Amino acid sequence: MSDLTKAILDREYSLEMVRHFKDDTDLLNEILDYGSQLLLRATSNSPRDEKAICIIYMQLRQVLVHLDGIAVLASAGCCFSAVLQIRSILEIAHAMEWILLADTDAKIRHLWVANLRKRRQWQSRGIPGTPEAALDPDAVSRFSPTPEQLAALKEEVRGIDTFLALPEFSAINAKFQPTYAARGFDKQWYEVYATPPDNLSIRKIADAIGKIKEYNYIYSHFSAVAHGGDLYKNVVFGQSIFINPVRDPQDVPKLRQWAATLVLRVYRMVLEQYLPSEIAHLDQKYVNEWRVRFLKEYSINITPQDTII
User: Fold this and answer.
1) Are residues 91 and 111 both part of a single domain?
2) Mean per-residue pLDDT, 174-202
3) Where residue 300 falls among pLDDT bands split at 50, 70, 90?
4) Domain of 236?
5) Which of 31, 165, 221, 280 has the most CB within a 10 Å radius?
6) Is the per-residue pLDDT at 289 higher than 80?
7) Do 114 and 77 share a structural domain?
8) Is the pLDDT of residue 307 over 60?
């Protein structure tokens, strides 16, 4: 590898620098281990109804997946990429708090119906003659299900239709249908839940739970990174133009603080719903084992050499 190329991507340097932040990566993994155990305990202590499936099985599990990704990326010094997981955890945390704030059962039913409809739409694409199959005939023509596969698809679709026809779901299902009939896709579930003309968005959800500043600082700020549109995160302008290295191990402490803050908030919400007697234990664990590392500040300054264009 040439010196110039190494200035863009120096794996060895990044891994060496990350060793300075072992406390941070260890903390992320310990919080992940706690969450993995929490998922099992909360499941055992839940009624395993639609709400539990959405809160524990879907949202908590997704938070754990993203936290695991952050820990892995931080251990390699890939902090720029890890902000995508931070952004997703923030969205889940805000949505969960908003769901639990008020009218929880209705919100859960809308989330449930949205997922069932999406599953039904995709499975129907494999069934010849359905409106969904007609949406992408080229793709459908390349899929030749066996008789057994076709029977399984039809059976699953029938089961979903039966579920959506239940009294508690049929009216919600009908609210999704006009947009789907006109455009071939569903609105987001929270938009369907909202009463017109209020066009509910992630930003408005953040505002409703009193976290609009957090949304602006993290979610909105990182959206440009997610969509490849953040010039100043990639390029430095001065007397010359510099391009930032691919890896940025110096930002591991920032990741630790963002991730731990959001994930512990999610854990607390899950505990409040399914294991309230364990909240004091989590608080004590934070004080005894995590607080010092969570609040840790570094005097060292690790900045990889920018590469001039």
Assistant:
1) no
2) 91
3) low
4) 3-97+225-308
5) 31
6) yes
7) no
8) no
112 and 93 within one domain: no
Q: Tell me whether residue 214 is in a domain.
A: no
Question: Cα separation of 152 and 174, whole Å?
Answer: 25
Q: What number is the average pLDDT over the span 53-75?
A: 98
Same domain, 80 and 115: no
Would 89 be classed as within a structural domain?
Answer: yes
39 lies in the same domain as 176: no
* pLDDT score recorded for residue 140: 78
Residues 46 and 79 in one domain: yes
Instruction: Say yes or no: 70 and 119 in one domain.
Output: no
Residues 294, 255 within the same domain = yes
Q: What is the pLDDT of residue 240?
A: 87
Domains held by the chain: number:
2
Residue 309: is its pLDDT beyond 50?
A: no
For 18-21, which contacts have Cβ atoms below 8 Å and span 24 or more sequence positions? 18/74, 18/75, 18/76, 18/77, 18/249, 18/252, 20/298, 20/300, 20/302, 21/74, 21/249, 21/252, 21/253, 21/256, 21/298
Mean pLDDT of the chain: 92
